[in-house]
Structure formats: structure tokens, C-alpha cells
Backbone:
């Protein structure tokens, strides 16, 4: 049933035609899976190619002479290190060092940056970011509804996308992007993704979404491409131990606890929350995000309690079967002394305490 | 459209029952497996466990969801389909055949008569929209 109150991407009717099972995802009417099912979709992305509608993500432009220093003041990674045509993963932090959102920052020029933020937090982020703007040295624009974003991911993604563009894709390095035409449509072609595979995210004007989606699907057919829903997007990112906002990241979670020290550049100069994070780093974090694997039959799912002996030590933030690894895996914040690889855990699965063990992350790493 | 064999009895919780003598085989319906999606884990009771009508006797899990399974009929478990431990995907492939869950010696052999017929179950499904 279509819910009138839910937001829709420009591909909504296409998802329905493809047999997408639609769900409410953070206020968006999105396909959780298509006819093939989540396991097939997941495997297609790992071994061939998967196509994802991620048009619900938010796009915010930051322009002006202080664009770099502005974004450097509100995010944890060092924007001054980016060159034109490069992007990086980063976090918006609050004064306490908690994560307002995780995001990608794209540098088009020294005076033009694009922030790509999560769908469910776009409004919150927009309010937060505009609040931080103190003068006219930057201009902000929430362009979320103007863009579609389609991700093509998997070992065959490059071969498929290359058939639709004259832009040479091979020279685009991981976390770099270029502007070019895809099937004749002006696009941002970004070698990024949320699956742990090689692949691209293509941004274009919303009106071209259906054309691009159908063309990518048709071109990918001989390669075995499948349209993939949110369920496969989740299992793919979880196998790769990538965080999901609202699960491994949140206003009360610091990036240091969430294994995001690598994007938290405490020596780059002050940013919102940097004092709190420096203090936390000096004092040492009390808890840490860890990966676990079930060692007995059972699936430790989101929200399940974790025990060591009689003591509750944490809660599963994301837990699921891992279709490629064929294991049941998950992520959880554990007290630092219990977050070491090999630590035995018990997960309370509907009243039964089932064994699990802390394992190294990512659970899955692509062979290069 | 769901497959609903004529010969079986059904519950509103989407279990099916097949009766032979005083033993009832229990599984989940085609509609239930399709709603769940790819089944990856089935948690079943042990032989000898006793269940009242409508008691949860196990669970079936897909990648995204967990669903409890209820006994449509009271009785004692006399056989468990252990093959589902290694091949839970049979629940999607053959829900009325190879993927039976348990066999129960019924406390009251007449209880199955109170369940839905294929026709009634089909009506029930369409009324659920």
C-alpha cells in the first residue's frame, strides 16, 4: 500500500514495477528487496553488480571563499587535505563530540564543496549546519530534492558504467570523482559506495533518474546485475563493518568509540566538539565498537543484550546473517576491556543465552 | 497468488497441519514463507516437548525478520525436522513438503477439525488485504 505521507524518490514507481517490497525507511517509501530476494541481491553485488536507488540521501552545497574553513569547523576530517575532484568520509559532531551525522564531503573547488548526508537526518543536519553559519563568507543550499543518486556496485560495475559514458572510469581513484555525461545526462561520477565493493555513485538531476536507472539495468543485464533493496544494502555494509547512523553512530556516540579515529583529525585545528574529543582521547575511551560472530546457532539482532557471565556488558547495534560469509555477525559497543578479539560473549536471544565471540573487522574484505 | 493445498488445514498464524492418525505434521504456509523472504534459520523444539494450543514452539528467521511459530494443535513433539538446521532455505522452496517443522502426537485428535480449510484460509488471506 502506498502511504501518502511518505517521501518518494523519483524511482518510486520503477521500484514497484520491479516487484520491490516497499517499506517506511526514515520517512521514505523505499524498496527493502525486489523479487530476487536479499540473498541473491547481496551475492550479485559481491560477485557481479548491484544497482541501488540512494536518491533519498541529502545533498547540501557549501559555496564561497570560506567554504573549506567552514566545513573544517563543523566536521572531523581535514577538508584542507582534499584536492579538487576528491571526496572523503567524515562526521558532523556536536559540542560533546557526539555524531550529528556521518557524511561524504566532495571538493569541486576551493570555494565549492558538496556534503552528502543521510536521508533520515537531512532536515536535522540542514538545521544544524545553517545554525553554524555566522556570516556571509559561505552560502548554503539544500539541494536534496534536485538530485537523484544511483549506486552501481560490484566487480562488474566499472564495465557496465563504462558502456554508458565517454569519461574514462579506470583513472578515477577510490574516493575521487569527476563530472561527465552518463547516457548523455550531466552527472557527478564518484568512485565511492557503501558495500565494500568497487563501484560508483552517480548523481544527476532528479528528472533523469528513471532514464539512468533503466539504462544501467539494461546495460548490466548481460553481466548479471540485479536491483538491490535496503536489506541487501544493510547486509553488504555490515559485512564490511561500515557504520549506520542511528545504530553505530548517534548524538551520544563519539567517533573515537565508533572506530572512526581515522577520520577524526584532532590536530587539524579546532572544530565543533574537538575539545571534548581531545579530552576523551587523553583520558582513554571506556567503550569501543567491536565485531562479533555467533559461535552457536542463532542470530544476535539489533537491540539484543550482550552478557559476559551474569553481567550485561552491551547491546547489539546491528546484527544479521551475512549472506556472503554465511555466518551470523554483528556490531556492538563493548567496555574496552572486553572488546578484544577472541573475547567470548553470550547474546540473549529471546531469553536464551547464545555464544558469540569478538572477531576482527571488517568481517569481509574484497580481494584487490 | 499463494499456493494453498486442498488437503491441509490452516491456522490464522499461517501454519499448516496435515493429520495422519493421531499425529499432526506442522509447517508454515507458502504465504508465510513469501512474507518472510529468504529463510536462514529455524529454531525448533526437542522431541518430548509438550505444547498447548497457540503456544510458541520455535521461530523462523529470514535475513531481516524473526517470526515465532505457534502450535495450532496441542500435543507432544514426536519428530523434529533436523534437516532444516542445515538447509533452512527449504522453507522457501518446499514449504508444504520437505520443510515440515515438527510432528506432534495430538492430545485431542479432533482438534484439527477446528482449523481453517483451504478455502477458509484463502478467504482469510484476501480479507487481510
Residues:
Amino acid at each position: 500500500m502506498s502511504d501518502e505521507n511518505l517521501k518518494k524518490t523519483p524511482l518510486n514507481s520503477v521500484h514497484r514495477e520491479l516487484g520491490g517490497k516497499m517499506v517506511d525507511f526514515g520517512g521514505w517509501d523505499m524498496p527493502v528487496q525486489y523479487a530476487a530476494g536479499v540473498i541473491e541481491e547481496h551475492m550479485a553485488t559481491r560477485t557481479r553488480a548491484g544497482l541501488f536507488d540512494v536518491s533519498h540521501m541529502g545533498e547540501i552545497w557549501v559555496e564561497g571563499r570560506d567554504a573549506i574553513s567552514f566545513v573544517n569547523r563543523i566536521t572531523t576530517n581535514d577538508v584542507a587535505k582534499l584536492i579538487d575532484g576528491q571526496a572523503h568520509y567524515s562526521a558532523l559532531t556536536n559540542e560533546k563530540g557526539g555524531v550529528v551525522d556521518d557524511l561524504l564531503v566532495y571538493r569541486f573547488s576551493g570555494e565549492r564543496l558538496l556534503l552528502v548526508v543521510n536521508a533520515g537526518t537531512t532536515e536535522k543536519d540542514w538545521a544544524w549546519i545553517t545554525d553554524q553559519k555566522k556570516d556571509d563568507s559561505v552560502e548554503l543550499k539544500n539541494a536534496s530534492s534536485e538530485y537523484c543518486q544511483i549506486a552501481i556496485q560490484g566487480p562488474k560495475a566499472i564495465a557496465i558504467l563504462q558502456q554508458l559514458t565517454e569519461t574514462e572510469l579506470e583513472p578515477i581513484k577510490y574516493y575521487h570523482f569527476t563530472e561527465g555525461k552518463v547516457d548523455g545526462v550531466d552527472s557527478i561520477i564518484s568512485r565511492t559506495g557503501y558495500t565494500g565493493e568497487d563501484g560508483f555513485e552517480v548523481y544527476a538531476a532528479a528528472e533523469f533518474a528513471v532514464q539512468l536507472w533503466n539504462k544501467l539495468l539494461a546495460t548490466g543485464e548481460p553481466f548479471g546485475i540485479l536491483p538491490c533493496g535496503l536489506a541487501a544494502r544493510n547486509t553488504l555494509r555490515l559485512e564490511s563493518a561500515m557504520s549506520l547512523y542511528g545504530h553505530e553512530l548517534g548524538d551520544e556516540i563519539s567517533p573515537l568509540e565508533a572506530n572512526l579515529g581515522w577520520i577524526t583529525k584532532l590536530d587539524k585545528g579546532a572544530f565543533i566538539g574537538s575539545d571534548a574529543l581531545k579530552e576523551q582521547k587523553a583520558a582513554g575511551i571506556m567503550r569501543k565498537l567491536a565485531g562479533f560472530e555467533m559461535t552457536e546457532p542463532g542470530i544476535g539482532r539489533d537491540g539484543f543484550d550482550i552478557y559476559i557471565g551474569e553481567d550485561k556488558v552491551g547491546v547489539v547495534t546491528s546484527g544479521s546473517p551475512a549472506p556472503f560469509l554465511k555466518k551470523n555477525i554483528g556490531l556492538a559497543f563493548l567496555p574496552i576491556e572486553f572488546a578484544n578479539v577472541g573475547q567470548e560473549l553470550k547474546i540473549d536471544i529471546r531469553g536464551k543465552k547464545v555464544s558469540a565471540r569478538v572477531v576482527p573487522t571488517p568481517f569481509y574484505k574484497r580481494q584487490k | 497468488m499463494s499456493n494453498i493445498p486442498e488437503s491441509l488445514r490452516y491456522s490464522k498464524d499461517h501454519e499448516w497441519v496435515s493429520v495422519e492418525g493421531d499425529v499432526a505434521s506442522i509447517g508454515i504456509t507458502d504465504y508465510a514463507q513469501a512474507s518472510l523472504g529468504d529463510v536462514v534459520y529455524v529454531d525448533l523444539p526437542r522431541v518430548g516437548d509438550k505444547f498447548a494450543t497457540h503456544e510458541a514452539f520455535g521461530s523462523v528467521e529470514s535475513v531481516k525478520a524473526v517470526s515465532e511459530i505457534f502450535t495450532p494443535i496441542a500435543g507432544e513433539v514426536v519428530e523434529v525436522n533436523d534437516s532444516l538446521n542445515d538447509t533452512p532455505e527449504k522453507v522457501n522452496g518446499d514449504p508444504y513438503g520437505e520443510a515440515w517443522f515438527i510432528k506432534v502426537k495430538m492430545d485431542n485428535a479432533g482438534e484439527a477439525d477446528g482449523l481453517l480449510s483451504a478455502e477458509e484460509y484463502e478467504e482469510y488471506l484476501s480479507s487481510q488485504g
About this structure: Helices of chain B lie at 30-36, 83-86, 90-93, 118-127. Chain B has one domain: 9-108.
